[in-house]
Design a protein that fits this description.
It is a single chain. By secondary structure, the protein is an alpha+beta fold. The chain has four helices and 22 strands. The chain is elongated. Helix content is about 20%, strand content about 35%.
Length: about 375
């Protein structure tokens, strides 16, 4: 009888041990395996997803380089863009915790073009007076009243470090004194980089790649930043600076900068493209005598192959005037190249070093309805 009781105790112990072993296995599955692999749910997910937002998945805030490839692969299979330091909040969140998370930016059919590429959106800022295109995956923020930041963090960016994989575009609007030239102010913009331990990599010079900008320079300050300076009107200027890390972002940055536009209603040059365009001097350029003016104008701006060009100082006093001439058949339709040369002297009356170049449409009839002109602000060296 005592032997039977001993067998029952042993059998009960074995059963309890088996149950404990199975329980441990189940707990291990729930805590570790299901967390890493996601349990292969009905949607076929291979990794755990902490949060689903509109067009974005938040995988985890547990940043681990050893498991990053799992999340990257999952995101790529979904046709999304993986971010190793993404935000955990929706794009329109007013307040968001500043923590890094593995995220996947998704696009639905309406957010892709016919080639499956990112579509471009237009940022129109009526307060600052500019517009610029940007890919919808970029984060747009405005921490200061005079500037707007566009940033895209690459998938290899490490958490809590300076940006080294991605692109950052900062558009700032500044005021500067009327006795200062645009070139002098551009040099001042480059100075803080030197004072902060950086250095000027490319000195301030005339911008040749983008017609809407007058001066450009490149500085090194926690990365290589290229600056493009555009005059709004005398005393107001835009500085477009951008940092690019990775060849895949170069085309993106070029498109943004190339299509940047000043939309301020008070901007100096009204839209006359297709009628008359001045290629030299550029808007806000520092000039000296003799001043060579070159550009293109529509045939109806000419009369007898010429039209007037006038240079005035800050107070409207005429400093020089000469005809702009074309060697082409000015009576034929379309734009025709022109050239003019003005000689002038600076006097004490020109103590404010700026003036205006006025391109006047020929108007032999004298009728007000036939009059037109284009004004280009310039500065004197």
């Amino acid at each position: 009888m005592r032997i039977d009781e001993t067998k029952k105790v042993k059998l009960g112990a074995i059963i309890i041990a088996i149950l404990l072993f199975v329980s441990v296995l189940y707990i291990f599955y729930l805590v570790f395996w299901a967390d890493m692999i996601g349990g292969q749910n009905n949607q076929g997910e291979k990794v755990a997803i902490d949060k689903r937002l509109e067009n974005k998945l938040v995988y985890t805030t547990n940043i681990d380089d050893e498991t990053k490839y799992l999340y990257r692969e999952d995101c790529e299979q979904r046709g999304g863009t993986f971010n190793a330091c993404g935000t955990v909040c929706p794009e329109d969140a007013a307040i968001c915790a500043q923590v890094c998370a593995f995220t996947c930016q998704l696009q639905d059919d309406e957010q892709k073009d016919q080639n499956g590429s990112l579509i471009w959106e237009e940022h129109i800022d009526d307060d600052l007076g500019f517009s610029i295109p940007y890919p919808d995956s970029m984060k747009v923020s405005q921490e200061r009243a005079n500037s707007v930041e566009f940033i895209l963090i690459g998938s290899d960016q490490a958490s809590g470090t300076e940006l080294y994989d991605g692109i950052r575009v900062l558009i700032s609007r500044f005021s500067f004194p009327q006795e200062q030239t645009l070139e002098e102010f551009s040099r001042e913009l480059a100075k803080p980089a030197e004072g902060a331990g950086g250095k000027i990599l490319e000195e301030v010079s005339l911008e040749t790649e983008h017609e809407q900008f007058t001066y450009s320079f490149t500085v090194s300050s926690l990365g290589e930043y290229r600056h493009k300076v555009a005059l709004v009107y005398p005393g107001e200027v835009f500085d477009v600076s951008y940092f690019v890390s990775g060849e895949e972002y170069e085309d993106l940055a070029e498109k943004m900068v190339d299509d940047f536009e000043v939309t301020d209603e008070q901007k100096s040059v009204s839209e006359k493209k297709g009628l008359v365009e001045v290629h030299s001097p550029k808007l806000g350029q520092s000039v000296s005598s003799p001043l060579v003016v070159e550009g293109e104008a529509k045939n109806n701006w000419f009369f007898e192959a010429s039209f007037p060009v006038v240079l005035v100082d800050w107070d409207g006093r005429i400093m020089a005037e000469a005809p702009a001439m074309t060697s082409e058949n000015w009576m034929s339709d379309g734009l025709h190249s022109f050239r003019s040369e003005l000689e002038f002297d600076l006097t004490e009356e020109n103590f404010i070093p700026r003036g205006t170049l006025i391109i006047k449409k020929s108007n032999p009839s004298g009728l007000p309805d036939n009059a037109d002109s284009l004004e280009v602000p310039v500065y004197f060296k």
